[in-house]
């Protein structure tokens, strides 16, 4: 029987990666499948690899109740018979808010979105429902325990982070209460710790740093043209001032646990395998089903200072490589041009510069910066699902730089 996957927020960062994975995963299975992709943004089939023929696209509109995500979900589910519903999996990613940019309007929309989804779920019995929550709900707690009680103390009632945390917790409770108190399917809440990767929109540490790194690398790529157009009196320092700096708020000691989007997709792969073969989880099934699981690569726990230094170190390694090419050219008795010598001088200057030169320190409201060292507990991920995230932050950066 055909399996139906329904993805809200389908054209978002996680949604695009998931749809490409589902297509690849199901193409290697025997059963037919159909992916229903819902999002407020126009979705181009060209954004999905391999030109899919088994994906239907639905455009929702937050300003039009007749085109709401919940209504579209209801319309899709209403076309399925009882057996088809029991073979339907929903991935709910849609959201308009973030930990540092939540407005009363966005908060109201997200509440109505999640409540609308909940009202639709009450009408049908499906196979499984996934909801992506956030590590921000742990606030300033010392240990981020997926089984522990929550104390939201991340700031005053008006703080961005607290409002965002409360928004996510209310949705978690809504969905968990429904599935735990009924026999209408299974629910899994995934609390995500800084999912990062290529294609992530600006506004996050890694995506912002990626853009700065790419800009600075473009200066290296175009160094010949820059030197060609620069005057003889233009000093190296003036060229150095073209580089963008990595912005770091306050001390930069605040830490994050960075998890590759590819590791998250592998988690979904494991969950799909266990969904199709539930006996593999055996007695530990209830630790995952109708429950919460932290998704974090605990080996990628770094302060923002450490993250910026990783970018700068990678940048300097590239500079070192460019320098070595010129030195090798000289060793092979190939005469270097005046421009080559100027490039060598420039490379040597870059390599001697302290990393702090590439950093801009910015004082911001402390309530916007979580200063705690994060300690996520990942027992369920590592021991129950038996998946250990493996992609290092360095490899995430290199992948996004196409290096």
General description of the model:
The longest helix has 28 residues, at 304-331. The chain has helices spanning 13-27, 69-78, 82-85, 104-121, 160-181, 205-221, 223-229, 236-240, 261-276, 304-331, 338-352, 379-384, 393-400, and strands at residues 3-8, 33-39, 55-59, 88-92, 128-134, 186-192, 195-196, 246-249, 255-257, 259-260, 291-295, 301-303, 359-362. The model is unreliable at 154-158 (pLDDT under 50). By secondary structure, the chain is an alpha/beta fold. The two termini are 43 Å apart. The strands form 4 sheets. The chain has a 7-stranded parallel β-sheet, sandwiched between helices. Strands 7-10 form a two-stranded parallel ribbon. It has 2 domains: 3-197 and 257-300 and 374-390, 3-Layer(aba) Sandwich (Rossmann fold), CATH 3.40.50.720; 205-252 and 304-368, no CATH class. Helix 2 (69-78) runs parallel beside helix 4 (104-121), helix 4 runs parallel beside helix 5 (160-181) and helix 10 packs antiparallel against helix 11 (338-352). Helix 5 (160-181) links the parallel strand 5 (128-134) and strand 6 (186-192). 42% of the residues lie in helices and 15% in strands. The protein is elongated.
Main β-sheet, in a few words?
A: 7 strands, parallel
The secondary-structure class comes to alpha/beta
Number of helices: 13
Order of helices and strands: EHEEHHEHEHEEHHHEEEHEEHHEHH
**Architecture of the largest domain in CATH?**
3-Layer(aba) Sandwich
C-alpha Rg, in Å? 24 Å
User: Looking at CATH, which topology of the largest domain would you report?
Assistant: Rossmann fold
Quick one: CATH superfamily of the largest domain?
A: NAD(P)-binding Rossmann-like Domain
State the end-to-end CA separation. Answer: 43 Å
* Shape call: elongated
Q: Percent of residues in beta strands?
A: 5-15%
Residue share in helix: 40-55%
**What is the CATH class of the largest domain?**
Alpha Beta
Which runs of at least 5 residues are low in confidence (pLDDT < 50)?
154-158
Strand order of the largest sheet: 3-2-1-4-5-6-11
The number of distinct structural domains comes to 2
Question: Would you report the number of β strands?
Answer: 13
Mean pLDDT: 86
